[in-house]
Design brief:
By secondary structure, this protein is mainly α. The chain has a domain of 31 residues.
């Protein structure tokens, strides 16, 4: 006979605990755009894309 004391049974958890875990995922900003780090990354990506587009346009203009 095997000893089952160390195994976890996922069906023994109450449904309320898993519901709370799911609801915790949806609290706050689901996109993450309100965090300062994400805002800095987006601003950096925007500045980079504008800079690359301007350089490309300037090189095409000289031809």
């Amino acid at each position: 006979m095997t000893d089952r004391t160390n195994t976890t049974d996922l069906t023994s958890r109450p449904a309320a605990a898993s519901l709370e875990a799911v609801l915790a995922l949806f609290q706050g900003d689901p996109t993450g755009l309100s965090s300062p780090v994400t805002q800095l990354l987006l601003i950096g990506a925007l500045v980079t894309s504008i800079t690359l587009a301007a350089r490309w346009w300037w090189q095409q203009r000289k031809r």
